[in-house]
């Protein structure tokens, strides 16, 4: 088993916990979408005893009023998946080793109060504009698979033919999932 340096991995994971958790623990999807609101616990159920910590993007922590408090994203994964610590480190390292989007969520918890706000916003905006420019209109011959997919999902022709919708040749799935979270 390869050796993972916990401290280094924790630093690497900082700011990427929504992506890591969506990849490794999809049962957190509702909590991620509704954060910081309380949702039903992914383990014991109930009505609204579970929530992500305010700095979840940075550190990954969460808590359930019944199951307990999990101060780091690693601990959350151990709890949800029943993994031991080395297993958890390996899984997180694997996700981080893939192609992460070059987008740092705006200032940690996304409230944008920190000093680096302007720079981060600018980078994010540039990256989004570039992504848009790299995409092709859905009328493009090349975008046919995307068009077919949207049609089968019941998306209206008006939307598919709108210039506001494009197909990107090489966007990882999680980027699409994450954008609403990042732009909140
Ligand atoms: Zn619980």
Descriptive labels:
two-stranded antiparallel ribbon; 11 helices; 2 domains; alpha+beta; single chain; binds zinc ion; 184 residues
Compact description:
The protein is of the alpha+beta class and 184 residues long. It has helices at 6-13, 17-24, 29-34, 56-59, 73-81, 85-97, 107-110, 117-134, 144-152, 157-160, 173-183, and strands at residues 39-41, 45-52, 62-64, 68-70, 136-137, 166-167. It has a four-stranded antiparallel beta sheet with strand order 1-2-3-4. The chain has a two-stranded antiparallel sheet with strand order 5-6.
Structure commentary:
The structure is a single chain. With 184 residues, the protein is of the alpha+beta class. The chain folds into 2 domains: 6-97; 107-183, no CATH class. 51% of the residues lie in helices and 11% in strands. It is built from 11 helices and 6 strands. The chain has helices at 6-13, 17-24, 29-34, 56-59, 73-81, 85-97, 107-110, 117-134, 144-152, 157-160, 173-183, and strands spanning 39-41, 45-52, 62-64, 68-70, 136-137, 166-167. The strands form 2 sheets. A 4-stranded antiparallel β-sheet has the order 1-2-3-4. Strands 5-6 form a two-stranded antiparallel sheet. A hairpin with a 3-residue loop joins strand 1 and strand 2. Helix 2 (17-24) packs across helix 11 (173-183) and helix 5 (73-81) packs across helix 6. The protein starts with 5 loop residues before the first helix and ends with a helix. Mean pLDDT is 81; it is low at 99-113 and 174-181. The site of zinc ion (ZN) has 8 residues, from strand 2.
């Amino acid at each position: 088993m390869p050796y993972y340096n916990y401290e280094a991995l924790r630093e690497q994971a900082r700011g990427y916990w929504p992506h890591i958790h969506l990849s490794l623990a999809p049962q957190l999807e509702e909590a991620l979408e509704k954060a910081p609101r309380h949702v039903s616990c992914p383990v014991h159920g109930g009505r609204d005893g579970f929530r992500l910590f305010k700095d979840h993007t940075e550190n990954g922590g969460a808590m359930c009023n019944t199951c307990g408090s999990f101060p780091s994203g690693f601990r959350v994964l151990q709890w949800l998946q029943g993994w031991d610590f080395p297993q958890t480190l390996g899984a997180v390292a694997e996700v981080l080793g893939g192609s992460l989007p070059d987008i740092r969520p705006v200032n940690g918890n996304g409230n944008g109060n920190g000093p680096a706000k302007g720079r981060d916003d600018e980078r994010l905006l540039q990256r989004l504009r570039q992504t848009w420019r790299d995409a092709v209109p859905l009328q493009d011959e090349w975008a046919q698979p995307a068009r077919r997919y949207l049609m089968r999902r019941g998306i209206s022709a008006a939307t598919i033919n709108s210039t506001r919708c494009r197909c990107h040749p090489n966007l990882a799935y999680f980027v699409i999932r994450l954008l609403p979270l990042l732009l909140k």
